[in-house]
Amino acid sequence: MVSQTSILLLLLICAPTLYSGTDLQPRCNEKDRSSLLIFKRGVVNHSKKLPSWSSEQDCCSWKGVHCHNTTGRVTRLDLNQQYLVGEINLSLFQIQFLSYLDLSLNGFTSLIAPSDTHASFSNLQFLDLSFNDDLHVDNLHWLSQLSSLKYLNLSQINLQNQTNWLQSTALHPSLLELRLASSRLNDMNISPSMKYVNFSSLLTLDLSGNNFKSELPSWLFNLSSISNIDLSFNFIQGPLPKSLLSLRNLKSLRLNDNELNGSIPEWIGQHEHLQYLGLSENLFDGSIPSSIGNLSSLIHLEISSNLLSGNLPTSLGQLLNLKYLSIGGESLLGVLYENHFSNLSNLEELVLSAAFSFDLASDWMPPFQLKGLCIKNANLGPKFPEWIYTQHSLVYLEVPNSNISSINSDMFWRLVANITQLSLSRNTISADLTNITLNSELMFMDNNNFTGELPRISANVIYLDLSHNSLYGPISPFFCHKFGRENNLDYLDISSNLLTGGVPDCWEYWKGLSFLFMENNMLLGEVPSSMATFIDLIALDLHNNSLSGNFSLDLSNITNLEFINIRQNNFSGTVPTKMPHSMEVMLLGSNQFEGNIPPQICNISSLIQLDLFHNNLSGPIPPCISDIPNMGGAQRTDHYPFEFNLYNKGRELEYEDYGLLRTLDLSYNNLSGEIPPQVFSLIQLQSLNLSRNHFTGEISREIGSMKNLESLDLSSNKLYGEIPDSISSLSFLSFLNLSYNDFTGPIPVGTQLQSFNASNFAGNPRLCGAPLPINCTVESGNVGESKQDDGRKDSAFETESLYLGMGFGFAVGFWGLSGSLLLYRTWRHMYIQFLNHVADQLHVFVVVMINKFSGTQASSN
Ligand SMILES: *[C@@H]1O[C@H](CO)[C@@H](O)[C@H](O)[C@H]1NC(C)=O
Ligand SMILES: *[C@@H]1O[C@H](CO)[C@@H](O)[C@H](O)[C@H]1NC(C)=O
Ligand SMILES: *[C@@H]1O[C@H](CO)[C@@H](O)[C@H](O)[C@H]1NC(C)=O
Ligand SMILES: *[C@@H]1O[C@H](CO)[C@@H](O)[C@H](O)[C@H]1NC(C)=O
Ligand SMILES: *[C@@H]1O[C@H](CO)[C@@H](O)[C@H](O)[C@H]1NC(C)=O
Ligand SMILES: *[C@@H]1O[C@H](CO)[C@@H](O)[C@H](O)[C@H]1NC(C)=O
Ligand SMILES: *[C@@H]1O[C@H](CO)[C@@H](O)[C@H](O)[C@H]1NC(C)=O
Ligand SMILES: *[C@@H]1O[C@H](CO)[C@@H](O)[C@H](O)[C@H]1NC(C)=O
Ligand SMILES: *[C@@H]1O[C@H](CO)[C@@H](O)[C@H](O)[C@H]1NC(C)=O
Ligand SMILES: *[C@@H]1O[C@H](CO)[C@@H](O)[C@H](O)[C@H]1NC(C)=O
Ligand SMILES: *[C@@H]1O[C@H](CO)[C@@H](O)[C@H](O)[C@H]1NC(C)=O
What we know:
Main location: membrane
Largest sheet: 29 strands, mixed
CATH architecture of one domain: Alpha-Beta Horseshoe
Structural class: alpha/beta
InterPro entries: Leu-rich_rpt, Leu-rich_rpt_typical-subtyp, LRR_dom_sf, LRR_N_plant-typ, LRR_R13L4/SHOC2-like, RLP23-like
Bound molecules: 2-acetamido-2-deoxy-beta-D-glucopyranose
Subcellular location: Cell membrane
Distance between the termini: 75 Å
Number of helices: 10
Protein name: Leucine-rich repeat-containing N-terminal plant-type domain-containing protein
Pfam families: LRR_1 (PF00560), LRR_14 (PF23598), LRRNT_2 (PF08263)
């Protein structure tokens, strides 16, 4: 096969010279050529995309066209990954001897069925239209005309509205491989009008990544010759039926990421030919059957993330051919002995995620040399296990949250010197990093007890997380020493340590950084203007240090910057405004900024969160605030700013959360004047906090249009007048504080206003009605004064703690969804697509969390 392909390739390359020199070579058939030209007309910009397809030339020398070497008839058309856009006219099938058609990995958007609906195109054996992501196909009837089809691949094209895909494919006894992965199919049950499926030759069936929600269909168990089944990433339910045993030739069974339940049956051990078994991410319970040790052909076994309990059977240690083993789950528990691994001499990757302990002799020599080892949430420590030092071929080593508190520094750093990915997160490892040079591309070393000064890094390091340790000393040696000049760092997190000193002025060597997190340290002094040279910066966090002076960085040329947090420092001067249009989240609270809120803020067009909480700002709110499109605009565009999510769980969640909320917090300042009505037209806002200022005037009726508002705090101002009725139409509102103003009249009767605690209306002596214990009679006067102190002391930070608490709960929930995503950059694109799918669910989740949290808060008051 391989050699044939290369010969064809050679022919293709040589073809023009061969043919131009002699008349003996067969020329392309005229009919074939005109069918090809019809196809060509459907390709947008075809003269550019298919320049060799000119009418003068022999069509056998056109790009992708292969002719028979003696008859000159076209037999293959192979145009995969040619960036072709447009329509596919299946009149191509009229090319009489065409046996191979591959148009995969292009951008075709429509398909024209063959015009002759009665013809049979009996020579076509291979058809691949996969990965034309925007190709919608409503009708597959024409498939029945391909009577000799052996390979059919329609993966990753849109068959969403296709209800009879099974009917159209099922009567192809010649079919060897059928791939319909990620094609948005909904139903895999056989329709009543169809008596049976005849896939009597089928070897490979790939239906992964669709929306199948039923149990495994019974027709599957009649596929007597089937060897590979992939139904992963669906919503398939129910237990594994015993009829699966009738598939005696099964080599690969991929059922991971479904909703299968029941136990993993003992009979699974009878599948003697099985090489690949994927059952991860399902709802299987019970224990792992020891018969699994009878699967003597097994190479790949994945059964993590289920509801399995108990210990592992020692029979696993018999799987001599096993290369990949992944087992995990929250209720798995027990002790692993040398027996569990005794014959695993071919094992290359071992992934265990469960509360296992290990009872292995200290001089145990494992039978394997691993390329990858991941043991998490286990009891590996307290010492880093000796046997891991015998593994010299590791590419990744991950032991997060595994109770390790000490390493043998000499051996450990030598072991990991050439490892690509290292994770030691969430242990209690104590080691001095002062003289260590880190060398792995991805290093997760957060949440330990590493001490000493910041380590050195080599040019290999791309991602480094050292947060939540006990590193100390000034940061400038790390940034300014010459060893760092060749760095390729993209992500650096040294937050939550004991680091000191000023922010250095050596940023010219760190231009590649996209993410820089230095919060929760003891950094001092001013921020040098050279920090504005981070052209690739996406996120910068410096909060909770002792930084001071004007924050005068001109960041307006950093056109990817989306997030800046400099809260809780001593910055002074005016509010920084030299920000790029890309800026989404600006957290400037708890500093000493003074003067007015500059109207330039309104030009930051991507802004979705602005926090100026607790500064010394005065004057009015600029009315232009409603010009910020993501706060005021009618259209809600969703933002997923933090692609580095892929790397790191904790951080991702914190900011994913920020990314979804639209908030404006101007509380705790000296702002005054009336609240401009424009503020109440920020209809995208979810949280508005103007409390603890000197605002006067009435609340505009406009407030009723802030349909997304979930939290509103106007407390401790000098607002007056009646609370507008329109406020009761804010149906998401779950936190409201209007206390300590001078509102008058009745509290509007609305669905949720009466459910808030009375303290949220306290300190308005002329306000009446539920939930206040004051009836709205004309003479109700000043009753209620005596109750007004209740809520005062804790109202200030309520909103903030509300969101902090929500962030955490949200984090846990969200990570559950995306927990198994891989870490490399190439996955970003897919990941973002994935997020788009779940966006609505996320939002719902946020709302639920807020409601829940404010519930607790109300009851604790
Ligand atoms: C076709 O060519 C025009 C002009 O060069 C270009 O603007 C357009 O984007 C091209 N279309 C596609 C689909 O490549
Ligand atoms: C034509 O191809 C066949 C195999 O496809 C090969 O056996 C034969 O030698 C080839 N003939 C010429 C003239 O290249
Ligand atoms: C597709 O090809 C057929 C010729 O077989 C032709 O009649 C038809 O017009 C083509 N369709 C389009 C949309 O170009
Ligand atoms: C589509 O499936 C066929 C047959 O299984 C396979 O040879 C081909 O590589 C697949 N195409 C892509 C783009 O993966
Ligand atoms: C599928 O059908 C629905 C409703 O009939 C329609 O709204 C949708 O656009 C169709 N989708 C495709 C890809 O044809
Ligand atoms: C399935 O197709 C094969 C080959 O055409 C044929 O021999 C067999 O009888 C068919 N089976 C059924 C149940 O129709
Ligand atoms: C690491 O790689 C370097 C160069 O590839 C090699 O010289 C060195 O021996 C390796 N070190 C270890 C501990 O494998
Ligand atoms: C680091 O290296 C320097 C110079 O070799 C040495 O003086 C110092 O004691 C070392 N520090 C630690 C913590 O190992
Ligand atoms: C961290 O290490 C320091 C010094 O090595 C030690 O005093 C401290 O107790 C350790 N903390 C924890 C939580 O292990
Ligand atoms: C921003 O870019 C412009 C145009 O390249 C340049 O003139 C200006 O000096 C830059 N500003 C800063 C602060 O780097
Ligand atoms: C409020 O009115 C209700 C009846 O409408 C009455 O039972 C209650 O005593 C009144 N409360 C006060 C404080 O006047």
